[in-house]
């Protein structure tokens, strides 16, 4: 996907197409004056290149009021464990410091239900505008509806899509059938939206409402203890600085050192370095997809095929996933499949399976397929499964369970529990593609799968060195277990030392 050039001018405010007014405030607030701007940060957890934060500061300067950032920590949101919450919280701790030092904006962390904590905070500080991140997920949309009801009539509520390059509602107003139907719409709007960010300055008016100390060490220790069955990872360091290092670093940056092989090697599970490595940072909003696209476009003349392939995944495929989850309320259910796929899966639901595995057998990688077992173990221990094998992994679950709905539920459960980038539209669409044929087409009919695309072990052997991949995962698991054991031993020794004092 070659991107068109955009204007070099930088607009000082956010384009109106990125903002939706979910609730109008009073006439007084719209004309200026009143209380501070509260930015409820959720999906886009960064200071730089954040259209929602830029909008909050712009609104604050227009009304000559301060800005405050609020974040609500949920208890194991959608099954998140130490792996996901630890990464997120360590990034947020850095963000709080950066906001204070760079923009003099306070960061408040709440724990509990957002439908209670956010309206209470808005009322407490007498806010005039509440700015929210956009998310297509059902739970978040329900929270927003309830929050709009609970905040006072004088409070305006704005939603900003800072996650997508082309705002979801601008890209399309309906459920798209495939990347083919969305691609042209996005390409048409890229010249308007793929332009650089303004230089964000500290708000004109400073916050004088006091600060609350955040006990980061204890909060992080608590979530790690509660979610210990899925431990943290050591290969991805959280935070905005680390995210930019992965993208642009002089040592091993994707665009600076690894881009050349992306177009030819990205589908080879034995060449993980060919991938960008950006998905954890994109998922938690620690880096902007728009920043990644802007930087990629600058080097397109060096490796045009790789840049075009990267931008297809980064922009079109990611935004297609958001489109599906927003316009299809059953994005994680057989009900969300296209009619042809749902019919063929139901027609073949009672077909005899060669193997039927339990949830426990699948989670522990106890199947007769060594490639699938290696895929599951990579996900469990490394927190990331290569994209090509995610497809194979999902399709074998369909083959080995009693029916498509059970297969889909199990795939989503495992995806969300172990992937560092789980609980994401890309993950839901990946499972739906593998099992329900979403964004795909009908294929030759066969047992169990019906017309859903089929994948098997022999096909994988033709694509890459399967035995080499299995050996690679074995080494990876041994190394991970050793490191985790050393960490656990160090923590135990520390606890014994403290208890003896």
UniProtKB/TrEMBL annotation:
Give the matching InterPro entries. Crypto/Photolyase_FAD-like_sf (IPR036134), Crypto/Photolyase_N_sf (IPR036155), DNA_photolyase_2 (IPR008148), DNA_photolyase_2_CS (IPR032673), DNA_photolyase_N (IPR006050), Photolyase_Class-2 (IPR052219), Rossmann-like_a/b/a_fold (IPR014729)
Q: What is this enzyme's EC?
A: 4.1.99.3
Domain Photolyase/cryptochrome alpha/beta residues, every copy: 35-168
Cofactor or coenzyme needed? FAD
Q: Which GO MF term does the entry hold, naming one?
A: DNA binding
Family indicated by similarity: Belongs to the DNA photolyase class-2 family.
The entry's function note states: Involved in repair of UV radiation-induced DNA damage. Catalyzes the light-dependent monomerization (300-600 nm) of cyclobutylpyrimidine dimers (CPDs), which are formed between adjacent bases on the same DNA strand upon exposure to ultraviolet radiation. Required for plant survival in the presence of UV-B light. Not involved in the repair of (6-4) photoproducts.
Q: What is this protein called?
A: Deoxyribodipyrimidine photo-lyase
């Amino acid at each position: 996907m070659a991107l068109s050039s955009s204007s070099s001018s930088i607009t000082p405010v956010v384009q109106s197409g990125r903002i939706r007014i979910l609730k109008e405030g009073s006439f007084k607030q719209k004309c200026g004056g009143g209380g501070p701007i509260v930015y409820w940060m959720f999906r886009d957890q960064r200071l730089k290149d954040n259209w929602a934060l830029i909008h909050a500061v712009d609104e604050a300067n227009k009304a000559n009021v301060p800005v405050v950032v609020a974040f609500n920590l949920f208890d194991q949101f959608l099954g998140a464990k130490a792996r996901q919450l630890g990464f997120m919280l360590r990034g947020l701790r850095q963000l709080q410091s950066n906001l204070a030092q760079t923009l003099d904006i306070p960061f408040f962390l709440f724990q509990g239900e957002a439908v209670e904590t956010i309206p209470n905070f808005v009322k407490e500080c007498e806010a005039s505008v509440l700015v929210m991140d956009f998310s297509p997920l059902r739970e978040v949309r329900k929270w927003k509806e309830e929050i709009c009801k609970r905040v006072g009539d004088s409070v305006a509520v704005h939603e900003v899509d800072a996650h997508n390059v082309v705002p979801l509602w601008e890209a399309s107003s309906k459920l798209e059938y495939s990347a083919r139907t969305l691609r042209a719409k996005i390409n048409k709007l890229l010249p308007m939206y793929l332009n650089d960010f303004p230089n964000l300055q500290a708000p004109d008016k400073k916050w004088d409402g006091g600060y609350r100390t955040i006990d980061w060490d204890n909060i992080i220790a608590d979530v790690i203890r509660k979610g210990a069955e899925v431990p943290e990872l050591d290969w991805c360091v959280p935070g905005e600085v680390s995210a930019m290092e992965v993208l642009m670093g002089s040592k091993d940056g994707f665009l600076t050192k690894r881009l050349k092989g992306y177009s030819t090697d990205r589908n080879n599970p034995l060449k993980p370095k060919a991938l960008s490595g950006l998905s954890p940072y994109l998922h938690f909003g620690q880096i902007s997809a728009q920043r990644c696209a802007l930087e990629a476009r600058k080097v397109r003349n060096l490796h045009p095929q790789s840049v075009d392939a990267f931008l297809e995944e980064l922009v079109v495929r990611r935004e297609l996933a958001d489109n599906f989850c927003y316009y299809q309320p059953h994005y994680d259910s057989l009900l969300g499949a296209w009619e042809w796929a749902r019919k063929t899966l139901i027609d073949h639901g009672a077909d005899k399976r060669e193997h039927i595995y339990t949830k426990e057998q699948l989670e522990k990688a106890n199947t007769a397929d060594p490639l699938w077992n290696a895929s599951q173990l990579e996900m469990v221990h490394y927190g990331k499964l290569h994209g090509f094998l995610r497809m194979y992994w999902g399709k074998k679950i369909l083959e080995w369970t009693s029916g498509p709905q059970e297969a889909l539920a199990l795939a989503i459960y495992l995806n969300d529990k172990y992937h560092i980038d789980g609980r994401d539209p890309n993950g839901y669409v990946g499972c739906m593609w593998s099992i329900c044929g979403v964004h795909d087409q009908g294929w030759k009919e066969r047992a169990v799968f019906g017309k859903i695309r089929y994948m098997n072990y022999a096909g994988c052997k033709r694509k890459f060195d399967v035995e080499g991949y299995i050996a690679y995962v074995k080494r990876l698991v041994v190394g991970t277990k050793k490191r985790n054991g050393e960490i656990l031993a160090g923590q135990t020794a520390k606890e014994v030392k403290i208890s003896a004092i």
